[in-house]
Write a structure and sequence with these properties.
Its cofactor is FAD. The protein is of the alpha+beta class. 34% of the residues lie in helices and 19% in strands. Bound molecules: dihydroflavine-adenine dinucleotide. Dihydroflavine-adenine dinucleotide binds next to strand 3, helix 5 and strand 10.
């Protein structure tokens, strides 16, 4: 059935392209001719090119933004060299075509390839081919292209050394570009912080088309790209990152407990226990009726892990029999697929499996949610087969020891983050409305128990319900953007806007939730 869905999408896409291309051919000819001066024609895909649909869909991860009626790019430039990015930006400015940069296309709200405004003319700058990875084991550093997937990076690090790693997220097809620019949270965050905390340098093309590195862009600009969210501060081509030390052998486990056994009580206990565990231990929970799965990565051997668990969380009943001792790179597969039986090469698979429709809402939790609230949330919202998961990811450890202003990501002192991850495969507005109202309903139910003033959200878990931009004198309104901006960035939002004023005062790089230039006092 997923194959049928894909064919239908192709049909919708091709049948709507003829309309949009007919109206835009004249307008965009000058932009195309500008591109053609420096970019080979095979890298420039318009709705009139056969390759356009397949390329557009190649990394669409949320089918809500591939539906008919969604504004689509007038051109996709599949850059293979930095100069192609520079040319696209300069031509875009000259001919009033805005850019949407796409690395892996995982944006929860499709902002890297779609626009909410049906009249907007934009080009997609696709960076999938800019994905070289160079590992320097002696210095424990790497240069990584934005188009590299997390899986490709994990594979390369694992192949270079069994005792090096990089702290990144769990999904191997997410790409480095969008991930690092929004922070990057994963199973090593309690030990080493976010991906963005481990960035040492970057190569960026700015709004003037200049190629900059850390020293030429300056520390404010460099601060902003380490968590300030996608698109606003130029196109990041590549990142120099610090690799971190891990033992040759790490330990993982996955323990399932059912609602009719002990799951609710365990989740309630988990909230205080997991964020206070030793930094070497990451223990997340996935709650999905009828069970809760407790999934752990420990940077050490099974014996020590079992002793820690027996002392700190005896109720879970973890024993040595639950352990699997593996390498760190294998643990990245376990965290994603709950098995160690897959070959490492699964990390290299970038193919876009027939996708799903997606709406995610997320929160940060400061004080444990009481047991009775978990009971009632489960009874009211989760108690049906096939309801989507709620994911709980612990903070604490290194996360809590980094200053909230060290990077734009301010959420350092919470117990954990929570995602209500609604995805579905059925087509049609009925399913869409039902699923979206479900996720919004759970979100409303959680309100008394989560962070407030602001209700804090991680920018990489993009949610357009928080608010979208509007213009004032042809630049993005700062006042309007504050509504969503302070939820993602708290006090760092103003500093991000000040950096934006400095590096992109004309607001060329913009989308529904891009950082606005701070108005002059
Ligand atoms: P995409 O290409 O869609 O880009 C996202 C945003 O960044 C867009 O606004 C885009 O324009 C901009 N952008 C992309 N590349 C850029 C560049 N080179 N320069 C400037 N701007 C750029 N997160 C997390 O922290 N931990 C996790 O475990 C997961 N897991 C996860 C699983 C799944 C299935 C999804 C769909 C998402 C996640 N995420 C996540 C969220 C993920 O980190 C977030 O969506 C990233 O922005 C995705 O980066 P991509 O490059 O894939 O997205």
């Amino acid at each position: 059935s997923t194959h049928i869905l894909h064919s239908l999408l192709f049909f919708f896409l091709t049948s709507t392209t003829s309309l949009s291309s007919a109206s835009s051919i004249g307008i965009d000819a000058s932009f195309l001719s500008c591109l053609s001066a420096d970019i080979p024609p095979r890298l420039v895909h318009t709705p009139a090119t056969n390759s356009y649909d397949a390329l557009l869909l190649s990394s669409v991860r949320n089918l809500r933004y591939a539906l008919p009626g969604t504004a689509r790019p007038v051109v996709i430039v599949a850059a293979t060299e930095p100069a192609h990015v520079q040319t696209t930006i300069l031509c875009g400015r000259r001919h009033s075509v805005r850019i949407r940069t796409r690395s892996g296309g995982h944006d929860y709200e499709g902002l890297s390839y779609a626009s909410l405004d049906p009249r907007q003319r934009f080009a997609v700058l696709d960076l999938a081919e800019l994905r070289a990875i160079h590992i320097d084991t002696a210095r424990a550093e790497a240069w990584v292209g934005s188009g590299a997937s997390l899986g490709e990076l994990y594979y390369a690090v694992g192949a270079a050394s069994r005792t090096l790693a990089f702290p990144d997220g769990s999904c191997p097809t997410v790409c480095v570009g969008g991930h690092l620019i929004g922070g990057g949270f994963g199973s090593l965050a309690r030990k080493y912080g976010l991906s963005a905390d481990n960035v040492l340098d970057a190569v960026v093309v700015d709004a003037q088309g200049r190629l900059l590195n850390r020293s030429t862009m300056g520390e404010d600009h460099f601060w902003a790209i380490r968590g300030g969210g996608g698109e606003s501060f130029g196109v990041v081509l590549s990142w120099k990152v610090r690799l971190v030390r891990v033992p040759e052998t790490v330990t993982v486990f996955g323990i399932r407990r059912f609602r009719n056994q002990s799951a609710v009580g365990l989740i309630t206990r988990w909230q205080d226990i997991a964020p206070a565990l030793p930094w070497d231990l990451y223990l997340r929970v996935l709650v999905q009726n009828p069970q809760a799965d407790f999934v752990a990565l420990f940077l050490g051997r099974c014996g020590r892990l079992a002793r820690i668990m027996q002392r700190r969380f005896p109720e879970l009943g973890m024993t040595r029999a639950d352990c699997q001792e593996i390498s760190w790179v294998q643990s990245t597969i376990f965290i994603e697929f709950f098995t160690t039986a897959k070959p490492l090469e699964v990390l290299l698979d970038r193919s876009n499996k027939p996708g799903y429709y997606l709406k995610v809402k997320s929160d940060h939790v400061q004080e444990a949610i009481p047991r009775h609230a978990w009971e009632s949330i489960w009874a009211k919202w989760l108690d049906e087969p096939g309801t989507p998961p709620i994911m709980l990811d612990p903070y604490g450890g290194r996360m809590g020891s980094i200053s909230p202003s060290a990077t734009p990501f301010p959420h350092r002192n919470y117990l954990y983050q929570l995602q209500v991850y609604s995805f579905w495969f059925e087509n049609g507005t009925e399913a869409l409305e039902k699923r979206i109202s479900w996720v919004r309903g759970v979100h409303e139910e959680l309100e008394p128990y989560v962070s407030r003033n602001p209700r804090a959200v991680y920018v990489n878990y993009r949610d357009l319900d928080l608010g979208t931009n509007g213009l004032e004198n042809n630049v993005t309104s700062y006042e309007k953007a504050k509504v969503w901006g302070e939820k993602y960035f708290k006090g760092n939002f103003k500093r991000l806007a000040a950096v934006k004023r400095k590096v992109d005062p004309d607001d060329f790089f913009r989308n529904e939730q891009s950082i606005p230039p701070l108005p002059a006092a």
